[in-house]
Design goal:
Keywords: Acyltransferase, Lipid metabolism, Membrane, Transferase, Transmembrane, Transmembrane helix. Helix content is about 40%, strand content about 15%. The chain is α/β, with parallel strands linked by helices. The chain is globular and about 55 Å long. The structure holds 2-acetamido-2-deoxy-beta-D-glucopyranose (NAG).
Length: about 290
């Protein structure tokens, strides 16, 4: 293959002369696979969400272990009905200076992630059952979310939840581990936005480790695409033959910009250089168009 490389289009990597592979059965396969998987999904997903929301109401001593059991029982089958096969999360050896050598995250730890689709949220819950949170406008504060809120958050216009903002210490004491969706909104999976959450060393308890979490999908990007609604994202996944998903973590006690770069490397996409101001303008524009439609 190497000898063809030089004639490929440098910007896209596409070779103009090799004919595209044609799959005569692909277009037929999609609706068939979706129809076969949909019933399993409908049987599993609503009861799972209901039980999970109920467990969030219990005192934390009970809530976390029970949620962990529920996640382990249900999520592998829900993911299978979405054609997603998760592999065991791996801890990458840190390449950045000052990074600590990681072990698997425990209840006192924080995962910094971006979010592109509901599948990301299900995968992270399967691996660690974290409490999800989004950055707040108050620095070093976050808004906790239940699992169903976190799933919806990946599909709606960027918005700040109504739950009161909490400091990381408050949230960790009761609901750790935490997964912060640090971009504060979801993207189309083409890159990682600048993180709106910048960890402040005083706000993080001493025994907590910050992890950057990146998920990559094979076929590339199959688990994340531009989505308008949760159903379109899930139906799209159901039609795939098979999606394998891999979570990779690195422990990094660095500033926000390095976390963004780290998640981007782990997920195998570029870090986007869009600054926070244009991000905010985009969010406002998105909100305006959404309110026009409704
Ligand atoms: C982060 O973004 C990348 C691409 O933009 C995506 O592949 C990945 O699934 C996203 N989510 C997480 C938690 O890494």
């Amino acid at each position: 293959m190497e000898k063809y490389r030089s004639t490929a289009d440098p910007s896209t990597g596409i070779h103009p002369f090799i004919p595209p592979t044609f799959h005569p059965f692909r277009p037929l396969l999609r609706p068939i696979l979706t129809l076969l998987r949909l019933p399993f999904f409908i049987i599993l997903f609503p009861p799972f969400l209901l039980l999970n929301s109920f467990l969030f109401l219990l005192p934390s001593l009970l809530s976390y272990p029970l949620r962990r059991i529920l996640d382990k029982l249900f999520i592998p089958y829900i993911l299978l009905s979405l054609s997603v096969i998760p592999t065991y999360p791996t801890i990458e050896q840190p390449r950045v200076r000052g990074a600590v050598r990681g072990k698997h995250p425990s209840r006192s730890d924080i995962l910094l992630a971006n979010s592109t689709s509901p599948i990301d949220i299900l995968l992270l819950s399967f691996a660690y059952s974290p409490t999800f949170a989004v950055p707040s406008d108050t620095p070093s504060h976050v808004h906790p979310l239940t699992l169903s809120q976190a799933l919806l958050q990946t599909c709606t216009t960027p918005s700040i939840p109504k739950s009161p903002p909490q400091t990381l210490k408050q949230l960790l004491r009761r609901n750790g581990p935490i997964s912060i969706l640090a971009e504060g909104c979801s993207t189309n999976g083409k890159g990682v936005l600048r993180f709106r959450f910048t960890p402040n060393p005083q706000s993080i308890p001493d025994n907590s480790v910050l992890y950057a979490a990146g998920i990559s999908y094979t076929p590339r990007g199959a688990g994340c695409r531009t989505i308008q609604s949760m159903s379109s994202a899930l139906l799209h996944a159901m039609g795939e033959w098979r999606i394998s998903a891999r979570i990779r973590l690195t422990a990094v006690p660095q500033d926000g910009a390095e976390h963004q770069a780290c998640v981007a490397t782990l997920a195998g996409v570029p870090p986007l250089k869009i600054d926070l101001e244009s991000g905010r303008r985009f969010a406002q524009h998105w909100k305006d168009t959404a309110s026009c439609k409704s």
